[in-house]
Amino acid sequence: MVSNKVNLHAYAIPLLHAAKYPASDVCGVLLGKNTTAGIEVQTAVPFFHHWTTLTSMLEVALEQVNIYAKKNDLAIIGWYHGNARLEDHVLPERAIKVAETIKKNNNDKAIIFLLDNKQISKLDQDKSAITPYINSDNQWKKIKEPFKNEEASFIENDVYSKVCGLFSSSAYNRIHDFDEHLEDVSLDWLNVSKMSL
Fold first, then answer.
1. What is the reported pTM?
2. 108, 144, 181, 188 from 131: Cα distances, Å
3. Which among 184, 164, 189 has a CA at the least distance from the CA of 174?
4. Beta strands 26-34 and 39-48: pairing type?
5. I need a surface site. Which of 5, 68, 76, 138 has the fewest CB within 10 A?
6. Each residue of 4-27: pLDDT tens digit?
7. Rounded Cα distance, 77 and 41, in Å
8. Beta bridge partners of 81
9. CA 142 to CA 131: how far, in whole Å?
10. What is the pLDDT of residue 106?
């Protein structure tokens, strides 16, 4: 059975990115390591809130993050996506295309996080605001009961309550994505993955 582990940073950063831009689609990469049983998702790097389609800027961002990941002994192992509309729970085709490329470049392993905007708006300490998808039999399948079984589980305890605390302290204001970096190069979008939580 596949066993994927998820760190607090990997869960919190995509949610904070979506909270900073609640009226926009948001997306980014997940960084971590391959394990014998699956993958360990350690952190995330926010990419876009303006240009979430497949563009040349995506290639630039992916290349920069790939260099950054290698310097930090990590790999690009997944993709996250948050839809702009509250009721939109559909995994977009463009997210699948990026994840397929990541999977091809990562020993046939990858994970997708789809953010649940409705759940983000009412953060709950018992229910995930992220739905993970894994590739099984050449299809991206939703993990049922995320972070409550071995298919995707947290490394740390009390992740939901820690994320609630981050939202209460407006930690999303410390998130910068590649779009922002293009507008103001002094904003360090890569080291968001190391922000103190």
1. 0.95
2. 20, 8, 28, 28
3. 189
4. antiparallel
5. 138
6. 999 999 999 999 999 999 999 999
7. 7
8. 27, 114
9. 7
10. 95
DSSP string of 1-55? ----EE-HHHHHHHHHHHHHSTTS-EEEEEEEEE-SSSEEEEEEEEEESS--SS-
Question: Degrees (nearest 5) of the Cα angle 45, 48, 26?
Answer: 90
- Is 101 in contact with 66 (CB distance < 8 Å)? no
Assigned token pair, 102:
């990541």
Tokens standing for residue 1: 């059975």
Amino acid at 81: H
Using CA atoms, how far apart are residues 145 and 147, in angstroms rounded to an integer? 7
* pLDDT for 102: 97
**CA dist 30 to 43, 78, 94, 145, Å?**
6, 5, 16, 20
**CA proximity to 45, closest of 7, 17, 73, 6:** 17
Q: Which residues in the chain come in under a pLDDT of 50?
A: none
Distance CA 56, CA 173 (A): 27
pLDDT of residue 119: 86
In 3D, which of 52, 49, 45, 72 has the Cα closest to residue 190? Answer: 45
